[in-house]
Amino acid sequence: MDTNVLASQAEQFRELFGVRLAPYWLGPLRLDVVKFDEEVVKPHLDESTAQAIERRWGKGAVDLVRVLL
Predict the structure, then answer these.
(1) Which of 20, 23, 27, 45 lies at a 20 to 30 A Cα distance from 68?
(2) Which residues fall within 8 angstroms of residue 22, CB to CB, at 6 or more apart?
(3) Which DSSP letter does residue 32 get?
(4) pLDDT per residue of the chain (69 residues) written in tens, 0 to 9
(5) In angstroms, rounded to a whole number, what is the distance separating the alpha carbons of residues 9 and 46?
(6) How many CB atoms lie within 10 A of CB 36?
(7) CA-to-CA distance for 22 and 44, rounded, in angstroms?
(8) Torsion of Cα atoms, 5 then 40 then 56 then 2, to 10°
(9) Could you read off the pLDDT of 3-20 as tens digits, one per residue?
């Protein structure tokens, strides 16, 4: 991933979720979705991570997480 694109997405991530991307980034290619899910998203038992993200932060946040995966 281009570093300028990643920097832009990292800023968008911080603005949306209120946390830095770095603790959830597993290197040059992917987001640690399990850690992010447990520490930030915290979905209800009856919903997926994507559903919880959309409920709390909107469709744009789901799209961003999908790009980072």
Answers:
(1) 45
(2) 10
(3) -
(4) 567 677 888 899 999 999 998 888 887 668 888 899 999 999 999 999 999 999 999 999 999 999 888
(5) 29
(6) 21
(7) 25
(8) 10
(9) 767 788 889 999 999 999
